[in-house]
Every structure is written in structure tokens, then in C-alpha cells.
Amino acid sequence: MPRFLKEFFDRNGLGIGSLMLGLVLFWTIGLIILPQLSMLDFSFRPNLPPPEIGGPKDVYTMENYKYLVFGPEGGSQDYNAVDLKVFYRTLVAAIFVTIFNLILCYPIAYYLAQTKGNHIRIFALMLIIPYWINEILRAFALRIIFGETGVLNNLLVAAGIFDTPFDFVRNDIALYAGLGYAYILLMIFPIYNVIESLDRNQIEAARDMGASWPMIHRRVVIPYAKPGISSGCTMVFMLSAGALAAPQILGGPSSLWFTQLIYQQFNDNSDWPQGAAYAVVLLVTCILLVLALMRVFKVNMGDIGK
Amino acid sequence: MKNLSFMRLSIWIYLAVFFAYLLGPLVIMSITAFNSPEFPRATPWECLTFEWFSALFQDERILNGIKNSILVGAGTVVLSVAMGLAGALMLTQIWPKLRATYYTIIIAPILVPGVVIGISTLVFWDRINRMVGLGADSFLSNGLFLTVIGQSTFIASYCMLVLVARLQRYDTALTEAALDLGATHAQAFRKVLLPFMKPAIASAAVLAFLASFENYNTTTFTFGEYPTLTIELAQKVRYGITPAISALAFIIVLLTVFAALFNEANIRRKELVAEARKEATVEELSSGQFKLPGFLSSNWAAVALVIVACATVTVVGTATVYSPQQCIADVQEQKRLETELRIQELKRQRELRRQQQEAEQGSSTAPAQSKPAGNDSGFGGVFAPTNLEGETEQQGSTESEGNNSGFGGVFAPSTLSGEDTSEGSGN
């Protein structure tokens, strides 16, 4: 037995130690690493009926990835314009939602973290309550508001701002509002956690030296809160790029989200390898994008999730 | 000073807007649960009704979904808290060199899109199933098993984060002392570490259950024959929405508020009791004369809890005796009357206009009067104003007769106004 294993069992005892080791190995290897690898492997295979899997036709192929870029073979277009456009729009919209959330949440997080008092607890409670409620129901609530005969349209028409009801759903406004709504808490908490540990004296000192409010935020608070901001942005970006419920419920009839394409491949076309290939593309692109942005803003991976 | 108060005001406005965005949708959705129209809407308000709640409780699919959700939730809580605890303990002991890699691996599922986790779980266990050679209906392809496994993959990471936070404050000397005093490892774990971790385990379990209960992205690929509540809701919402869903949402909101207030009230009470104990003298404490603060005294959360509870009891009480039939009939009657009034109004206007026209025509020159004489031409009288009038009048009267169908209110104004414009252009 290697020395570190022996030490491990000495410290934890044989029973508890092996239980711990077993659970951790099951989780990391059986649930996290192997399924991802298996999905990657699967995405390089052709779509075969079950009896032929493992047979002579089951060879590695780039077909599924080619499909995303070039479309069906012998198709009329050179590129798979529809799917690529959906992919591009999903990423851009996710970035947009992330920025919107950051701008919306930073002042709130700062206020909650730097103010003392009983009402802060009430605010925290009010923040958390919406997140105990089903994701689907939250999207449903927004659909009631943004619908053609919804509350917002009734209000706007009654106030005389619009003559006819404005179609928020078709213009994707409902979708962006829904995505932003869904992940507010994930943006606020990391930023809040970091700013809460910021010494108030630093702000006071900066103010005594004559710094204006924007200056204090730019030079003192934001640099300090950078790990929280980046971790919040990463989570919001990844989750909104990978969202499925909100686009299904709030998306316009003509606009698709990339996850909806994956869903269609799996459930409507039952082309699993194709769906897996799309999922791999989504995952890899998102990770690369996040890593690139983290490098630009000089943030470490270790700061995420703290 | 003026600057400061301006800033304070803008902060409050910002907070108000923010919380309106956050809570407004939930409030409006809750209101729609009590409004009588078939389509969930808060405006215009028609009748207070509780029928959507009874519709909800008669929905087999929803009830079945709740059952499945609870099953999946229970499995996920057990598996992910166990894995999270093991993962957290491992994090404190692992080789420093491996630590960063290990941390990245166990934190990654939080960032991986749920869709990807669902797909990879499905694909992987399908392959295992084939390798082992079990049939298509083995437990490895069972929806319940796959959903629990898929959800636990990332929910265990949440649990791990919660548990690690508490574990960092654990003094390992306690375990060592227990071992020195002759406890076995299992005893030390059960009697020393677990009691210390108990609050964190409880909150991790609650978090795991909630996360499992509301998960959609992963479950939608793995559920098989066990659609959870979220899946059922999504299917309902995608293919036509009814206020029954609002009713369910309202119940969930209410339960959440109850749980949150209860938790808050408990925390606050503990604080108050601790404070009171600190202030009490030794004699008071030893003689048992020490007076605990009342449950409601200076505890806003407890007061709110009691108010919400009373309101709920009142509403449920009203719901059992209240019948909206009268009100619905009234609203229909009112709609009918409104429609009739509108028709009358239109008729009168038209009559007025015709009279005006006649007056004008009468005063104008002869050629205008000769127009109706050309009626034998191909177009007949279609464009003649008088003809149209006859038509609309007829329609109007049939409409007012057929009003009991309930559609009268919907279609009459638009058809009438359509005719109206065509008549206008005919003129």
C-alpha cells in the first residue's frame, strides 16, 4: 500500500476512510469525469440504431461537428447558417445578460454589504425568497407580465405610451428580463461576500483624501471586489448560456437558444451523438470564453466559487 | 448635506425598483390565482375565485409530479450530502499538490450547464448498461436512478461548499483527543465530528432538496417515466397556461414565506434569549426565576409569522364558504349590458350621421340624389351607405340576442367597429 494511502487510513480508520474514499471516487470519477469523457467520445460517433452499436459501422467520425458548421451534406447552403446564428446569438445574449446583471446587482451588493441594521436582514430575506420558487414558475410569472394582454402592456396602453400592445415576447425582451431575473442572486452573493470583508476605513480614508464616489469605487472597491465580481459573472454567464427553461417559456417563436437545439436533437430527432456534439461545443466554447476573459481581467481560477 | 440626502433618496428609489423587479412578478402571479378569467391575468379584475385551487388539487399529473419530486429529492439529499461531506473532508486532508486540481474538479459541476450534465449522465449510464448487458428496463436506465445521479453530480458541489465552510472551524485536536481516550475512528466520527457538523448538514440537506425540487435542465434529459413536478409544470406552461399554475405558485410562495419567517423568528429569538441571559443575575438564573422574553416581544419576524398565519386561516376559511357563482354571473351580466350599451351608442351615432347626411344631401344638388338610382349596376348597393347600415343593424340585433353565449362581449365591438370603418370609407 502506498505511504499516503496508509497515512490516510491511519488517520481516518479503515471503515470511515474507505467509505470516504469510495464516495469521493464515485463522485469525481463516476459522476464527473467519466460521463463527460463518455459524452465527448459519443459525440464523435455516428447515429446508429442500438443493435449496430459496437459493430463495424461504429467508427470515429467528425460528421457531427461538420454538421454544425456546414449543415447537412448536399444542403443548399455552404454553411449551417441557422444553427451557427443561434449559437452566436446565444453567446452574445448571455454576455449581454451578464453585463446587465452586473450593473444591476453591484450597487445592491455594495449597499447590503456596507450598511448595518435590522432592515438588511429583511432585504436579504426578500432576496432569497424568489430563489426558493421553481425556475419554471418564475419564468411563468414573467410571461404573465409580458404577455400581449399582460399587466405591463395594459399599463403602458392605459398610460398612453403605446397605442397597441407591444409584443415583448417576439422582441426577446421577455427572454432577457427572465434570464436576468433568474440569476440575480448568483451575481449578488459573491460580490456581497467580498465587499462585506472590505474594511470601511479604506473607504473613509479615500474620502478624506478627497476622492469622489466614482473614484472610490473605481480605485478601492472594485479592485478589492474583483474575485467576487468575476465569480458572479462566470456563474451568470455559464448558467444563462446553458439555460433551457427560460428560453422555452419566454423565447419568441422565431428565436431559439442553443440549448433548445440540443434538446431538439435529443428529444425530437433522437440523434444523441449530434446532441452530444452540440453540448460539447457549447461547454468548450463557454469555458474558453470564461478563461480568456479571466486572463484579460487578471483573475485566478482559485477565486471562483469562494 | 443636501448632496447626502439626495444620495440617500436615490438609493431608496433604486432599492424600490430593484425589489419591484424581484418580487413584482411573484405578487402579480399570486393575484392571478384568485382572478376568474380562464387565462391568468391580474387586470382587469373580474371575480375573486378559489376554483383554480380545486382545479389544481384534482390534477392527477401535478399530484403525481409532486410525488416523484419528493422521491427524487429524498434520494438526492442522501447521496449528495454524503458525497459532499466526503468531498469536504477529503479537501482538508488531500495532498497539497493535488489540492488545486481536486478543488477544480469538484467545483466544476456548478459551472457546467445543467443540460450538459443531463446529457453526459444519460449517455454514460446508457453505455454502462450496454456493457453490463442488462436490458432496456434495468435499474440503470430507470428515470428515478438517472435523475438522482444526474442531480447529485452538481448538488453535491453545493453541499460541499456549505460543509467546507463549517469544517474549516473544526479543531482536529477534538478528534485526536477522542482517539487518545480510546474511541474508535467510527465512534470519533459519529460522536465528535458529526454533532459539530450537524447545523451545516441540515442546511446542506435543505439546500439540496430545494435545488433538486426546482431543477429542470438536467432532469429534462433523465426523467424517463418519472416526470417530476418541474417537468410537468414546464410541459403545461409550454402548451397553454391556466391560473391553476398560478395557484400552485401561490402555495409555494406562501410555504416559502412561512419557512423563511419561521427560521428568522427562531434565530431572532435565540439572540434575544442569549441577550436576556447575559443581563440576568446569577441568583435569578440559579433560582429559576429567570424570565424568558416572550415569543413575540421585539421580534418582527415572529409578528409577521403570526400575521401571515392568521391571514392564511382567514382566506382558507372564506374559501370554504365563498362561492363566486353570483359574482361571475354578475360580471357576465355586466359585460352583456356594456355590449348592449355600446351597440346602442353605435346605432345612435350612425342614425345621427345618416340624418346629417340626409340633411346635407337634401341641401346639395340633384346629381347626388340620383346616385341611388344607379343601383342596378354590378356592384349593387354594396357601397351605398344606407345598405351597410341595414346590415350592421341586423347584425347588431342578432348579437344582442346571442349575448348569453358569452362571446357577445368579445366579438361585438370589433365587428361593429370594423363595419363602422368600412362604412366610413364607403362614405
Provide structural commentary.
- The complex is a heterodimer of chains A (306) and B (427).
- By secondary structure, chain A is mainly alpha-helical.
- Chain A has helices at 3-12, 14-43, 63-70, 81-114, 118-128, 135-146, 151-158, 173-182, 184-196, 200-208, 213-241, 245-250, 258-267, 272-296.
- The two termini of chain A are 35 Å apart.
- Chain B folds into three domains: 60-241, MetI-like (MetI-like fold); 245-320; 325-358 and 383-426.
- Chain B contains 17 helices and no strands.
- Chain B is mostly helical.
- Chain B has helices spanning 2-32, 51-57, 60-93, 96-111, 114-132, 143-167, 172-180, 185-214, 219-222, 229-238, 243-279, 282-287, 300-321, 325-363, 366-370, 385-401, 408-426.
- The interface between A and B is large, with 92 and 91 residues.
How many structurally independent domains of chain A? 2
List how many beta strands of chain A DSSP finds.
0
Task: Note the beta-strand portion of chain A.
Answer: under 5%
Compute the number of helices of chain A: 14
Q: How many H/I helices of chain B?
A: 17
Q: Would you tell me which CATH topology of the largest domain in chain B applies?
A: MetI-like fold
Name of the CATH class of the largest domain in chain A = Mainly Alpha
Brief write-up:
The complex is a heterodimer of chains A (306) and B (427). With 306 residues, chain A is an all-alpha fold. Helices cover 70% and strands 0% of the residues of chain A.
